[in-house]
Amino acid sequence: MQLLLNQTSPYARAARVTALEAGFGARLELVWSDPWNEDARLLAANPANKVPVLITDEGIALSETLLICLHLHLLAGGSTLAAERLQLAGLGQGLIDAAFATVIGRKHGGAAQDESVLGARRLAAIGRLLQRLEETPLLNEERLDFGHFLVAVGLDYLSFRLPEIDWSARARLVAFHRRLMARPSFTATTFQ
């Protein structure tokens, strides 16, 4: 299997962490790609020009982080996930989406983007997502799946790219984040 990714994509990190947690580290060839520079290999695998892309052993290119994570979960023999676990994955994906859109908005439109209607909606979404996640009992479970990994990557991405969004008063999220960041799959994939 090949994973097309880059170092700073929270989406790619979530897919890579899921692959490592599912036991595919030795089988996974990392293909570093640059979606901002019309990377020919990435474009051939995903016409949307986004990372991550998982190329299966059969040569099928899977894009979209949630689909890749679900495929890896099932390929590793994971069971069908209950709706509440899929909900957690959706909350984690939503956190990543809102944070990433905020970063890209600022990159291309400056800090004033935060005051636009879309910028304000994204920041409000981050606040609501953090509150919902703080209240989510699934974060305390020992049995982890890709929903937990998406949430942890989203929190770490906030700290990496949007440190002014302070979520340190959310004790459950802080404890959850610390617990997952200590895992080998997270230490091996630190944002750079």
TrEMBL record:
Alphabetically ordered keywords of this record: Transferase
GO molecular function, one term: glutathione transferase activity
Presence of keyword Transferase: yes
KW Transferase (keyword) present: yes
Domain (GST N-terminal): residue spans on this chain: 1-80
Catalytic EC class: transferase
Transmembrane segments: none
Leader sequence residues: none
EC numbers on record: 2.5.1.18
Name of the molecule in the record: Glutathione S-transferase
Species of origin: Pseudomonas oryzihabitans
